[in-house]
Amino acid sequence: MREQYADYAHFFKALSDPNRLMIVDMLSCGELCACVILEKFNITQPTLSHHMKTLCDCGLVNGRKEGKWTYYSLNGDTVRSFRAFFERVTTAKEDCICYEKNIEEDCCQ
To answer: 2-106 sits in which CATH class?
Structure first.
């Protein structure tokens, strides 16, 4: 499980920007053209491109070119995997990291 923390940290970093969170929310309704996304923000096209690159690089979003337009959608497999990871780390469980020997020894002594 410990290696998964590093594997999923880049998702949290990508989602730490309010604009990127809003973009993910918009894409939850389905595929959108970059021009439609851009209309909802007071940002430049290069800034939108930066946000989309960040979301695509971490795997949360897929982009596809159609002519001169780029269309974006959520990557369903990645979203499900991230959702499952977040559920695991926010739910009590028998194999929780807090039960590892070195953590228990350091705590409350």
So the answer is: mainly alpha
